[in-house]
Amino acid sequence: DAEITQSPRHKITETGRQVTLACHQTWNHNNMFWYRQDLGHGLRLIHYSYGVQDTNKGEVSDGYSVSRSNTEDLPLTLESAASSQTSVYFCASSSSRLNEQFFGPGTRLTVL
Amino acid sequence: SQQGEEDPQALSIQEGENATMNCSYKTSINNLQWYRQNSGRGLVHLILIRSNEREKHSGRLRVTLDTSKKSSSLLITASRAADTASYFCATRSFTGGGNKLTFGTGTQLKVEL
Question: Which B-chain residues 27-66 have CB contacts (< 8 A) with chain A?
Fold first, then answer.
């Protein structure tokens, strides 16, 4: 069955370190998204991609970057982790022809 | 900024009762979607309603959309303990382009035995 996976599921890091969160989907979807979820804010869009070599900034993109070298993967990099980036991160994907998004299980990131 | 705002923020009911959650939004939309999130898990898509639709059903779920009031409601009938979760509305707006969704802050539903 097609799925979307994220790794690691839990990560503790220190302020200033570079961190990369992986997202891999086997749906063959063109569209991929990264969100962060914080209490009181719901889900906020960080970056998104509509296809290979395409990346776009979302609502809260400062301090984050993504790259899309193939259809299946959209890694999210925190260039210099800050305590304000402690959050739960969700990756999602969708087909261009459908509007529903399929979510991964999430990565809980703690920045000390 | 949040496009959708759910109401109430938390809801506690007994098993077998109906649960109603509301969502209000600010700008014109192409469609509105409802998602469920169980504790510690990712979101799962429940139902999508387009701007030209007024009501949609899926199993025990009933969604209504009133574009004149910029609001939607999700009704879960004959609730079960397994319905305990957070429920989010998400809107796809005309101005957004592509396939971006804007999520609300969610309603936490607790169904007690």
Answer: 31, 33, 35, 40-45, 48
